Amino acid sequence: MTEKTLQTLFHETLKDIYYAEGKILKALPKMAKAANSPDLKAAFEKHRSETEGQLERLQQVFEIFGKRAQAKTCDAIEGIIAEGEEIMDDFKGQPALDAGLASAAQAVEHYEIARYGTLARWAGELGMSDAQELLTATLREEEATDQALTSLAEKKLNPSAQAA
Ligand code: FE
Ligand code: FE
Ligand code: FE
Fold this sequence. Notes:
mainly alpha
């Protein structure tokens, strides 16, 4: 059996987030369509276009690592997106829909922050500083998206979701 090393973990985790980003790219337009608030729609649309760039960065990281870009099913993102779809269905036409959509999107961002945080550190430890920079650039976008959603929820979505 081949030895499983930090390189193996890095490769497997890269395939995991590559799969997840592909799923997220498809989910974000659905979330933008479902949202009522124009600000929330805009936030989802902005992040959809960032996600395209993130997929390109991942392809560059695969290249630096010397492997072909390959996705491996991520059960976590399947579950997180399924929960978001549940909110979309259960809260359709309801005052709390947007607050629920924002919280579902934040669960996605938190998963990505966990993965990119780890991958960026591992890339550094494996001596791939260019890959580390690419992964850190994406990590910063995920963090900024998370923070934008928090501020939108606090200022608008949560207050308008509350019963009078
Ligand atoms: Fe992403
Ligand atoms: Fe995963
Ligand atoms: Fe994201």
